[in-house]
Amino acid sequence: MIGPHAMPMLLACALMLIAIAVRAEPFDLVIAGGRVMDPESGLDAVLNVGVRAGKVEALSEQPMEGLRRIDAQGLVLAPGFINLHWHGVDPRSDYYQAMDGITASFELELDIADVDRWYDERAGRMPIHYGVAIGHAPVRMRVMGDPGELLPAGDAARKPATPAELTAIAAGVEHGLRRGAVGVGFALAYTPAASHWEVLQMFRLAGWTSPRRNITSCSGPPPVSGSRVRAFSSIASKADWC
Fold first, then answer.
1. What is the pTM of this model?
2. Between 108 and 169, where is the model more confident?
């Protein structure tokens, strides 16, 4: 007969045996012998990878048992790549990216003026993650009635914004950020009439309106040089000149 004082020890042993049994179960998938690289942690080693229920559960130099096995010797195994500069407009272009190991793609250069429409056109159709920035130039074109299709071809390229237009441009950029844009995109080479003050206000919106979505990408040379570039860039957490 088992005494009451032995029950806790038996329960602990039973739980330990269950845990060992769970760990001993074969993985759904084992990717064996690949060069595992993780830029975030700095990991770079030849390892076996155990996958269960669609998630990576174990990395080990030791052999693993799996219901399926992929021999990855001579291949690199890494987290999905992120493409920050892509102009693809339909799911087919993203399928090609997926075949290159890209699992998230973003349009962060010229960008768009209507964030809601952009996301609605892609909802449920894209094979990988995606996002877009609200574009300073497209919003400027809409506010100033520019006839250009992709790039400014009229007032948005050649005319300084009036105070009222600047207010409307800022409102359009802020609205895009609040509707899910991941940042603000600039096409400064195509809006040479935009004043330093106008660009500064847009940088402020990029850096302050939504701190978690403040990637700023710019096409063309910086609006100013030297220390003033650093002042502009410090307002947003990241400024890429491409």
1. 0.72
2. 169
